[in-house]
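Newbie here. two chains, one complex. Structure please?
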Amino acid sequence: SQQGEEDPQALSIQEGENATMNCSYKTSINNLQWYRQNSGRGLVHLILIRSNEREKHSGRLRVTLDTSKKSSSLLITASRAADTASYFCATAQYNTNAGKSTFGDGTTLTVKP
Amino acid sequence: DGGITQSPKYLFRKEGQNVTLSCEQNLNHDAMYWYRQDPGQGLRLIYYSQIVNDFQKGDIAEGYSVSREKKESFPLTVTSAQKNPTAFYLCASSMTGFGNQPQHFGDGTRLSIL
């Protein structure tokens, strides 16, 4: 079963606005990662947040993690048309299947110029 | 420039045919992964390898096979037993295979049935 689920499935905003995407998961995690995928390309790693961290920043990206609610959010500030892509969360657990990350179905972000 | 190279970019399979997708990395990473992505969906893990000469099945391994004879290479064979192979296939690598490392992805191979 899918560990991470993104919400919303699709998001359309104007350039300059902020975009917020959410990820919920079911079981305890070691860390959570966010990736970006442009159409027809591979995924690009954006940011990793560990289970003992609550917030992390990278440029215009801000990620929060709430382990009590089993959820994370990705905020992109001052969006640009070039931010148009799909965004995925991936969770990693330490169990007998160590080494596996589980990806959600993604949020498709469209930023209109 | 370090990275992951997948080839070919597009591949067509005839009925009953096995096809092999290539994945090469020059990042000196121990772990490598194969994912399948269907339209509008996320990634599903086919196989992964944490170290040379070792690999494990992922969530959807049936109809696929892999080998890991060299650290740099992790080819995926889509066999004739895979009845619905049309998808976008992504290869990735990470420094170690312990789920706490960012994965680096290639640009994928799009496989279709003729």
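Moderator note: The radius of gyration of chain B is 13 Å. The mean pLDDT of chain B is 93. Thread marked as resolved.
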